TrEMBL record:
GO biological process, one term: DNA recombination
Record carries keyword RNA-binding: no
Reported function: May play a role in DNA repair. It seems to be involved in an RecBC-independent recombinational process of DNA repair. It may act with RecF and RecO.
Keyword annotations: DNA damage, DNA recombination, DNA repair, Metal-binding, Zinc, Zinc-finger
Domain Toprim: 81-176
PROSITE patterns (UniProt xref): RECR (PS01300), TOPRIM (PS50880)
The protein, known as: Recombination protein RecR
Zinc finger (C4-type): 58-73
Gene that encodes it: recR
Organism lineage string: Bacteria, Pseudomonadati, Planctomycetota, Planctomycetia, Pirellulales
NCBIfam families, per the entry: recR
Length: 199
């Protein structure tokens, strides 16, 4: 596709850098945006701008938030004796959608993956250890994904947290190995939470 006006080819370039969007899809999206009403197209641009300027990580749990503390950490009704450790904010959303958990969370922002160059110091582990040290938690639930790296991460964390008087559990293996929290349905996640086991 040569010969587009500069602005169009710039948009196609940008879109094709998004994950899962090839050149053809990028062109389709670009032409779609030229065809829809102007306010509709600009609303997308606004949404992108807002998500980057207004959204940050919660100061306590690293969930996505528009305030210093996310809605969960700020909610006085949450059970502050339980802490559930997840890899990504989207895993937290899956657990929340199950409605089966009322405690707090800690988002690692990744998992330990030596082969991809992800080491423990790149995750929010120091802050997790601090929270467990200073908080009143009786149970830490490892809800990393049931993959080799997810399991390795939860093992590493349970060693780091071993010195504290907390029970460390992990989700039951209802979620089949290799599948990830993000794609599991609510019933499976609720079962995995109810059937959690001591690590
Ligand atoms: Zn939070």
């Amino acid at each position: 596709m040569s010969g587009h006006a500069g602005a169009v080819s710039q948009l196609v370039d940008r879109l094709s850098q998004l994950p899962g969007i090839g050149r053809k899809s990028a062109e389709r999206l670009a032409f779609h945006l030229l065809r829809v009403r102007e306010d509709e197209a600009l609303a997308l641009a606004d949404a992108i701008r807002r998500v980057r300027t207004d959204v940050r990580y919660c100061a306590d749990c690293y969930n996505l938030s528009e305030k210093e503390l996310c809605q969960i950490c700020a909610d006085p009704k949450r059970d502050r004796t339980r802490l559930c450790v997840v890899e990504q904010p989207r895993d937290l959303l899956s657990l929340e959608a199950s409605g089966a958990y009322k405690g707090l969370y800690h988002v690692l922002l990744g998992r330990i993956a030596p082969l991809d160059g992800v080491t423990p110091d790149q995750l929010t582990i120091d802050s997790l250890v601090d929270r467990v040290r200073t908080g009143n938690f009786s149970e830490i639930i490892m809800a990393t994904n049931p993959t080799v790296e997810g399991d390795g991460t939860s093992l590493y964390l349970s060693n780091q947290l071993g010195e504290f008087p907390v029970e460390i559990t992990r989700l039951a293996r209802g979620i089949t190995a290799g599948s990830v929290l993000e794609y599991a349905n609510r019933e499976i996640i609720a079962d995995a939470l109810t059937g959690r086991q001591k690590l």
